[in-house]
Amino acid sequence: MLISLSIAFVCFYVVHMAGITVGYHRLLAHRSYKCPKAIEYLFVMAGYLGFSSSPMWWATLHRAHHRYTDTVLDPHAPRYGIWEAYIGWFLHKSYAEHLKPETCSKDMINDPLYKFLDAGGNWHKAHLLNSFINFSLRGVMALVWGWEIAAVSLAAALLVQQMPLLLNVVCHLPKAGYQNFNTADTSVNVGWVAFLTLGEGWHNNHHAFPGSARHGLKASEIDPSWLIIRAMKAIGLVSWSNEISINTKYKGPQKPAAVPVASNISDMAVPVTGSGSGSATGKPGSTLGKPELTPVAVLSQHTRSANHRRSRMKIKQ
Ligand SMILES: [Zn+2]
Ligand SMILES: [Zn+2]
What we know:
binds zinc ion, 317 residues, 2 strands, disordered C terminus, mainly alpha
């Protein structure tokens, strides 16, 4: 019994984690490969049932993370506090001006499913809806298959939910790992995080080439999520994918537009890295749409936002 429950736990973990890595991250946030809508929904639902909340919210915030890496506009930069980077940002109530899906996620804004799960842009409602659906599913599982399997499924899903939060912190602590590319940000590759997240821990590679469906580049950098995408491509479920290799020439971080930077905000001098999805891919990523606001305009609105009092305090220091 214990062995079969352990196997079930691993299976649930892999399914929900793949939902986040192959679905939420590499497909929704970065459009690094193309597949039929049914396959997209399948992976996204696997992620959603791992307590990952609104897919559009997730992808929008993640695009902002790439666009504004390590700056005050980054939704979860550990340099402004580990707690805020880990869970604090998650608990805010609504989108700050520079995070609006209307400008950052035009490719998802009209999808009825993603729109519904986003609960009108109210993060608390979206998280509650996600929790309600997740707990209800385990209730049904308990009735059908017994409480043990439901409990194992719940434990796996809750553990999966923690992984991206953990990654956001650990993979931006320079001492925690190594860089293959001089991305001029704090992103690092961390092997044990990659193991737990099906390849997402090769985070420096990912910041260097955000639009690539493949994150593990060296022979030692095992990337199960890429293997899943490659397998789907082999059987015709994926029609296109953007794949780079360790030999792909890295052209350096994308420099921010020449805009004046407030003199007392030294952190804004950190180069803004790639556009989060389109920079390495070229074509499909170009549909994502960049925010139309300049960094300075965004920062001005950002500092007025009640959601980001913490960052504002940092700016004043
Ligand atoms: Zn990152
Ligand atoms: Zn990413």
